[in-house]
Amino acid sequence: MEYSLFTKLAAEFVGTAILMIFGNGAVANVELKNTKGHNAGWLNIAMGYGFGVMFPVLMFGGVSGAHINPAMTIAQAANGMFPWSQVLPYIIAQILGAAVGQLIVYACYYPHYKETESAEAILSTFCTTDAYATRRNYFVNELFGTMILVLGALCCLELQWGSQNYASASIVVGFIVWGLVCSLGGPTGPGLNPARDLMPRVLHSILPIPHKGSSRWNEAWIPVIAPIIGGIIGCWLFHVLFAI
Prior knowledge:
By secondary structure, the chain is mainly alpha-helical. The chain has eleven helices and no strands. The two termini are about 20 Å apart. The protein has helices at about 5-30, 40-65, 70-80, 85-110, 110-115, 120-125, 135-160, 160-165, 165-185, 195-205, 220-240. Keywords: Membrane, Transmembrane, Transmembrane helix, Transport.
């Protein structure tokens, strides 16, 4: 069944919002003061992002492809797997969905934002940073992480076994994200998604949060550009090596 462009955009909007609610919601639960899950640990965050990708792919994969990530959309278009005419509408839907999802996280954790005094903890619930404070490491981590994510997701969803059992493939994609956050998440977070980083960073800069500190705009280009390059490479590898 072919859905209308409006329905596809609605799926991308809602799917990206769900990603933010589960992912950054998990970070807020761990990092913000006096939450029930305060200091629950990195595994809690990894699970949040894994489920945050798994559920939208299950819900909307058959509607819009559940890109929920501008890097995935651009990568597929650059490799002839997605029409360029739909790239900008998809990205707008994803960006707006990320903003709404982050606002929901902010609303749900509002009292805890007011109580939290650590600027680093607050910023981590919105966007990524590099733990070693080096842009080179930041770029490398986001590029390779997104490359693996896109390659892995396409292999699961597009190859014969996944296309015949989409639900199982969607669950595996969620585990890929879970594994990536556990394995390559230490240096930067990670972002792996321009919408997941950019719009929350914008909101961090404008929302009236006590003790929030800098939004670190001097490095904000990295989690936008590096995932796009990594996504294109990952999609190219799939297209060259495995696409039938």
